[in-house]
Amino acid sequence: xxxxxxxxxxxxxxxxxxxxxxxxxxxxxxxxxxxxxxxxxxxxxxxxxxxxxxxxxxxxxxxxxxxxxxxxxxxxxxxxxxxxxxxxxxxxxxxxxxxxxxxxxxxxxxxxxxxxxxxxxxxxxxxxxxxxxxxxxxxxxxxxxxxxxxxxxxxxxxxxxxxxxxxxxxxxxxxxxxxxxxxxxxxxxxxxxxxxxxxxxxxxxxxxxxxxxxxxxxxxxxxxxxxxxxxxxxxxxxxxxxxxxxxxxxxxxxxxxxxxxxxxxxxxxxxxxxxxxxxxxxxxxxxxxxxxxxxxxxxxxxxxxxxxxxxxxxxxxxxxxxxxxxxxxxxxxxxxxxxxxxxxxxxxxxxxxxxxxxxxxxxxxxxxxxxxxxxxxxxxxxxxxxxxxxxxxxxxxxxxxxxxxxxxxxxxxxxxxxx
Length: 419
Hints:
This protein is an alpha/beta fold and 419 residues long. 25% of the residues lie in helices and 22% in strands. It has an eight-stranded parallel beta barrel with strand order 1-2-3-4-5-6-7-9, surrounded by five helices. Strands 15-14-20-11-12-19-16-17 form an eight-stranded antiparallel beta sheet. The protein has a two-stranded antiparallel ribbon with strand order 13-18. Strand 16 (378-379) and strand 17 (385-386) form a beta hairpin. Helix 1 packs parallel to helix 9 (263-281). The radius of gyration is 23 Å and the shape is globular. The model has no long low-confidence stretch (mean pLDDT 89).
């Protein structure tokens, strides 16, 4: 880890190889990801296969990045063999830990000496619960509904009571720092199952809470006055503005939500929190910096930002739309056809967008991760320097990082936000 004073693990989501590389390249200390259907983003994230674990482990070990596999859904009897197969594969490929919420997964992982992390799905909210799960787990993701004082007290009690996990080390505490907040208790919600027969607790949430709702008096037919139609859709958590107080609780792992988000989201959020953590450790953190970081975070997917439950205030901050409130959005523009390492340039076959000097762009691919820059120069196919190019042209642009053939090229534009 690059931070010295606060040994905080910056934990990044990875729903694809592009996001995995984006997390590593932008300062993550660890990544968490799922395979197949027994994880909480089995429907919304791209996800990996069991066969991908070998490559994931190889990539991360080369960079000294910890790997955590999510096996955190409610499990049924017919899935128990799959669970064992998945955890066996995690052990074989030297995955650092599995994140679990079902006792079947927890007990099996513990029985074969695979490190266990307790999912937020179990809503651990007090030190007695920590003591119980310490029989099996080395790290616990706390319930999202706790305030900072309660988190700090749990950490202090772990030290005071010397609560250790199977490795003989003090239990480590993990907490969500940024991303989606659910109206359900730590994400445990039955609404999607009740209305669509798609269980949120099995990775198939249809996000019914994110839709518009109207309250009507049945007797009179009149609509009740509600400030916001999205009455069950909280804004996202953002702790960047009070990150020093958040770290002061003594947590070990700072978790970023977003396995269903784009590589650009992962790159931006991880880079921003990496800068903020390092600034705290260098005694250069300030509210002015925090405001600028918030602007960067607002550029990528969000439903508006809130403090969540952490500051002990009533949670009355609801999203204003089912759409993202990001200030930017990307548009597919073309593909990379060649990269020239000596010149630091990439040849792009434009297909769907015009481009010009100064445009913000991203290039993403399985081995590349994501590169986000601005266009500094454009050369036409006959090597003439030009200020702009139209779709279907073959052009060359300068770029500061290696990209690869068939990587996708996007133009990022300011986004009109629909309320």
